[in-house]
Design brief:
Layout lengths: L1 E5 L4 H11 L3 E5 L2 E4 L8 E6 L5 H5 L7 E7 L5 E6 L4 H17 L13 H11 L4 H11 L4 H19 L7 E6 L1 E2 L11 E2 L6 H22 L4 E8 L7 H13 L3 E12 L6 H7 L6 E4 L6 H6 L6 H13 L5 E7 L6 H14 L3 E6 L7 H5 L1 H4 L7 H16 L3 E6 L10 E5 L6 H8 L4 E4 L4 E6 L2 E6 L4 H6 L1 H13 L2
Parallel strand pairs: 1-4, 7-10, 7-17, 8-9, 10-11, 11-12, 12-13, 13-14
Antiparallel strand pairs: 1-3, 2-3, 4-5, 5-6, 14-16, 15-16, 18-19
Length: about 500
């Protein structure tokens, strides 16, 4: 297949859509993208705009000049055309490319042409443009963006809830992320920078000391500029993989060093149940109303062994009961849809077991197909093909949403990752009053996030501008360059 671009160079936008349908997408050369697929070798897709548009025009919301955009399969009656303003050009090119390829291949993804991380942003924009008419918004998502009906409905419901949560936040105040990139073992589906804590030895103590220094100095800076944090999230990896003493030191620093608004939301990922100890829960309980996460991922021992988690289902029950015995009143639990060897029925069994426990929040993740994960290394030939639409997984997710709704759980934030199984999404569900505002603020790109720890990212939001900086992923590099890292971060946030 050849994809010819005329009057534009939107390679990344079109390649993002092409990769939904084809495994091998070439580079842009002389205005042409070559796709290696023998079944469609003779196909030519032509993507045309009537005149060249500058990057500055595309970034400007003020420019309302209408520009004609047309895409077609040469030599066929498959074509689509419309007029849009420059700021909508990239989105329109992707939409038209998706339309043609879905017609050509008869492959239809649950979220249609909405390939981005935050589809609810486009959903909510449509909701506003349709004057808060839910029926017109759902119709727009289905007819113009090619979203399937049940995803249009859950997307709208989530988008409206996200908007309500965001409206209650203080846009000028940051949120804080504290990262501990270690786990007891690395899961076979994971490509994060997490390292096996069991092999780290004394390096864990060195990491804790560096993290404490970063917490203290960054906290001092935000105290000086009078910008307390409105939400704090300690994640990973698995923070509870630290020693009881090291973990307690970090919790104490959060409580005593970090400037916070009154009733600041604090969430601690207790994570793997085999790393949760009475001492760690006692440390967390020194923070009033702290939220915790206990993440089984599945309630099948066989799957836990396959994916490389060294805990059992019994450990999940033990950790949950221990948390309740310590009066934790806001517990989130995670499940992953599409784990190796699991059927839809297997996943729904796991969900039923969580519903019996009755946590305040449940998050459903769809397994992302990571190129550097152990699973990809084992099953390279079949692995990425799992991203194509999967009717069983889609039906299972729909049934799960219905089960959650019946027990009072409603969606409150939603995001998507590249190459998830079946093109599906991740959704956080919560009972009334237990939504995690950090999750919503972080995914919105409307709130500045200060990231501490190895591999963490920070983002500064200034109106429509969004900039990011990153801490080094390498542990030794992070520790050795800590003073420079801290100063760079202070300078970064001083520019706002």
């Amino acid at each position: 297949m050849q994809v010819i671009l005329e009057n534009h160079q939107e390679y990344q936008s079109i390649a993002e859509i092409l990769r939904l349908f084809f495994l091998e997408v070439g580079k842009l050369e002389s205005g042409v993208i070559l796709v290696a697929d023998s079944e469609y070798a003779d196909i030519i897709l032509h993507s045309f705009i009537e005149c060249e548009v500058s990057v500055e025009q595309m970034r400007s919301q003020a420019d309302q000049t209408e520009i004609s955009v047309q895409s077609r399969i040469v030599g066929s009656d498959l074509s689509i055309a419309t007029k849009v303003v420059p700021s909508a050009l990239r989105r329109e090119i992707k939409r038209q490319t998706y339309f043609l390829l879905s017609k050509l291949t008869n492959v239809h993804y649950p979220w249609g042409s909405l390939t981005g991380v935050r589809p609810t942003q486009i959903v909510y924009r449509s909701f506003l443009e349709n004057h808060h008419d839910k029926n017109l918004t759902i119709q727009d998502l289905i007819e113009d963006w090619y979203v399937v009906p049940d995803k249009a409905e859950i997307g709208l419901k989530t988008a409206v809830t996200e908007a309500k949560i965001l409206a209650a936040l203080q846009s000028e105040l940051p949120m804080l992320y504290i990262g501990v990139p270690f786990c007891t073992t690395r899961c076979s589906y994971c490509s994060f920078i997490t390292q096996d804590a069991i092999n780290m030895g004394t390096k864990l103590d060195i990491y804790v000391q560096a993290l404490l220094q970063e917490i203290t100095e960054i906290s001092d800076y935000f105290k000086r500029i009078n910008k307390p944090f409105q939400a704090i999230y300690m994640g990973g990896g698995t923070p509870t993989v630290l020693s009881d003493q090291g973990f307690t030191k970090v919790i104490t620093a959060i409580k005593e060093q970090v400037p916070q608004i009154e009733n600041c939301e604090i969430t601690i990922e207790a994570g793997r149940p085999d790393s949760i100890t009475p001492a760690k829960l006692a440390a967390i309980k020194t923070i009033a109303e702290a939220r915790i996460c206990i993440n089984p991922q599945t309630m099948h021992d066989q799957t836990l062994q396959i994916i490389g988690r060294n805990h059992s289902v019994e450990d999940v029950y033990r950790a949950y009961e221990l948390a309740r015995a310590n009066d934790f009143s806001s517990i989130n639990m995670d499940l992953i849809l599409g784990l190796p060897g699991e059927t839809g029925e297997d996943f729904l069994y796991s969900l039923d077991k969580l519903l019996e426990l009755d946590p305040e929040s449940i998050t459903i993740h769809t397994m992302a197909l990571k190129r550097s994960a152990f699973l990809e290394q084992q099953y390279a030939a079949q692995y990425l093909k799992l991203r194509f639409p999967d009717r069983e997984l889609s039906n299972t997710f729909s049934i799960a949403i219905q089960k959650l709704a019946k027990q009072g759980y409603q969606p409150y934030y939603l995001y998507r990752q590249k190459n998830t199984r079946g093109g599906l999404e991740n959704i956080g569900f919560t009972k009334t009053g237990y939504a995690c505002v950090y999750n919503v603020g972080m995914m919105s790109d409307q709130i500045s996030i200060v990231g501490l720890g190895s591999g963490s990212s920070s983002k500064r939001v200034d109106g429509d501008r969004l900039e990011r900086i990153y801490n080094p992923k390498d542990l030794t590099n992070y520790v050795e360059r800590l003073a420079e890292i801290i100063q760079r971060k202070i300078n970064f946030f001083s520019e706002s």
